Amino acid sequence: MSLKSTLHDLKEKYKGKKMAPAFNAIHTFLYTPNETTHSGGHVKGADDLKRTMNTVIMALVPVLLFSMFNAGYQHYAAVDAANGIIRKVSLFENFLTGENFWIGVIKVLPLLIVSYGVGLIVEFIFAVIKGHEVEEGYLVTGMLVPLIVPIDTPLWMLAIAVVFGVVIGKEVFGGTGMNILNPALTIRAFLFFAYPTWMSGDKVWVYDAVNMAGKPDAISGETILGYLAQGKVSEITYSVSDMFFGFIPGSVGETSTFLILLGGLFLIFSKIASWRIMVSAVIGALVMGVIFNGVVDAGWITETSKFYGLMSFTFWKHLIVGGLAFGIVYMATDPVTGSQTNKGKWFYGFFIGFISVMIRVFNPAYPEGVFLAILLMNVFAPTIDHYVIRGNVNKRLKRLKNATAVATGNKSEKLKAETV
Amino acid sequence: MSKDIRIKKGLNINLVGKAELATSKAPASNVYVLNLQDFHGITPKMLVKEGAEVKAGQALFYNKNHEAMVFVSPVSGELVEIKRGDRRRILSLKILADKTQEQIEHTVPNLNNASASEIKAILLKSGCWPFVKQRPYDVIANPEVTPKAIFVSGYASAPLAADLDYVLKGKESELQAAISAVAKLTPGKVHVSYGGSNSPMSNLKGVELHKVSGPHPSGLVGTLINKVDPINKGELVWVITPQDLIIIGELLLTGKFNAERTVALAGSSVKKPQYYTTKIGSEIATFLYASGVNGEKFRVINGDVLTGSKSKQDGNLGYYNNVVTAIPEGDDYEFFGWNKPIFNKISTTRALTFSWLNPKKKYDLTTNTNGEHRAFVVTGQYEEVFPLDIYPMQLLKACMVKDLDEMEQLGLYEVAPEDFSLTEFICISKQPHQQIIREGLDLLQKEIG
């Protein structure tokens, strides 16, 4: 008996039983179901939600691999720096090495496994309780979560955050497709507000920096944004190409703007993510950056201001440091929590970019704004859509008004003719 | 003078098994069946009893809400069965055809000076009225209400649809007679669309002609209405298909209800797809097996693959159809079908689906859903294939939550289920769009009327 027919028999056996959704989730992972059309059209297009989600995951895989090497590279670079050695990055000599990758394996992989394991267990439980199929939304969320947290995040912390994010962020609204806030960002926000010391500062971004703090061989793990926020512009040793290709400290997967750009282009080409949101978010970030640069150039604030460091940061560099690029490409484009109308997407994206850079500059505790900006715009996305759709509704009402005006006009002419 | 309508948003679904431009006479059918599901929203009241002898064109039943609206037999014979379902609802009527056909003849008023009410009366009496459908609600028209305009789509863009230019050839006089008659029933215009310049529709007089081009749904009458004169709340238009206009025209010229029509038999499960002349209600098997079939597991569809209804292999031709499609059933599993590259199916994305490489390629699609039903997730995809000035997903959601105000405001009056057949085809969440719209329309009609 082949695997196919064995699974088919099992499916028939468990049909209607409580555990059926859990079994079907595994079954449909292996085989596209044998379901045929019943109502309406008799043929269907090739894509399903699994394929859509899988495409996003494929766009994330290069970023994940890079982040595993970078985890090790940043650790050893910081150790060298503590000993007074300045490292120059070289892709084949000191970046794509086994010892770098090993740090990735022991630090990044567990984050990924905990994120998927805990999240999928919650999804399966809810699917069985509510008797619906396991929806694929978590496949992408589970991949995003380890990439947007600091590398030293304890696993138990991540597990609690994932449970919170999936239950409160998604399931209470009715599951995939119904949520208001991006679940991955809800998880990130929970971590940020529940355990702030683990999520910010200059120690959490590089492996082992927390453990070594205070010891004689202590290493530093400050991000570029961190330096800027403290006005220590001169201490930044990273070149523009380091920033663009991602050889800098930061959240696990956010550093390589180059690979994120490639992922974004792939998503646009495959028509899975909205290019409107990506383009308008980039424009929004640039506009805000230019405004801040203008404020500095006009001399309205001086070097003594605590905002000077970030405000004077050349506007386009905002796009290649921090999580802005990652947020724009992979999280702002979430179709469920984003704006759903094409016109609305332009406004939605623009404000994400605009507000991200604004929060970056004005948030004194934590110089990163993209996740708060996206969550904020998630809340406003239905409002944006409401006004876009009202435009369509008003057009319809106006047409109706004109039609009745013509009709009554004809009637009054007739009446006039009769009285004459 | 014709106006051009160019549709950009849409999708042509090219399938294997297009009917060849050759017509044969279908072998005579023994039994004829009228399926009452074809008449949505009609409550039938029988006029003849089971076992009665009827003539071709004789009334079988009438509409409970409009006694004058009768539905007639396509052939003469014996009414052998009235099939009933739950609560004795009539499902179908079966007629055993006589060897020699007898036909009821009506006296037709002179078309040149007949009044609107005379024309209405003859259409109702002869059983031609059910061919007139109305929007909103996509049901058989209410004869008591005057429409603001009448729309006829003379261009078929649906997958494997019958080539109207071919089917209508030589029927110009019938078309013109029918058009001239129904034109008297509206104070507005009769809008007719056509595809190629050699279409028989392009020479019609007394109509507003529109030349349409572009991908499906450019040939749907709903697209024509939306581009020419969209329906506002409280307004009403009528639509008639060209193949039905021929029957109306012949009745007006000869006084006889002739149920004969040319039907395209198409689809990849048909060995020799071509055209057949047969009658409404005839057995599909008569001409299906005349052409031969490939394989054993296939589905016979009364209509095209996007909007037709599922039929049995021993089913009968529907009342409004001019195409019968047979495609393979897809009730099989596919190993890792959700992540491997796909070359043999149609998709509007490029997520390892490669139908964008070769838009002219013809596909052999099955009835597999290619995935499971999910909540609405992806946005912005329906808009690519939906040319109407309406937000499709928002309207669908309004119908699902039964929000009458929202349904009205978002334009439910302007659409019919078939307008959502393409969005349903590409839907990643595999939602039943046409069913959602149908239920929304029924609710709106019940609550607002």
Automatic annotation (TrEMBL), chain A:
One of its GO terms (molecular function) is oxidoreductase activity, acting on NAD(P)H, quinone or similar compound as acceptor. Its EC number is 7.2.1.1. The chain crosses the membrane at residues 56-79, 100-127, 147-168, 180-198, 244-268, 275-295, 315-333, 345-363, 369-389. One of its GO terms (biological process) is transmembrane transport. It catalyses: a ubiquinone + n Na(+)(in) + NADH + H(+) = a ubiquinol + n Na(+)(out) + NAD(+). It is found in: Cell membrane. The keyword Oxidoreductase does not apply. Its cofactor is FMN. Coiled coil: none annotated. GO terms for cellular component: plasma membrane. It is a multi-pass membrane protein. This is Na(+)-translocating NADH-quinone reductase subunit B. It comes from Cellulophaga tyrosinoxydans.
From TrEMBL, chain B:
Pfam families: NQRA_2nd (PF24836), NQRA_N (PF05896), NQRA_SLBB (PF11973). The keyword Transport applies. Residues 5-97 form the NqrA N-terminal barrel-sandwich hybrid domain. It comes from the Bacteria. Its EC number is 7.2.1.1. NQR complex catalyzes the reduction of ubiquinone-1 to ubiquinol by two successive reactions, coupled with the transport of Na(+) ions from the cytoplasm to the periplasm. NqrA to NqrE are probably involved in the second step, the conversion of ubisemiquinone to ubiquinol. NCBIfam families: nqrA, PRK05352.1-4. This is Na(+)-translocating NADH-quinone reductase subunit A. The gene is nqrA.
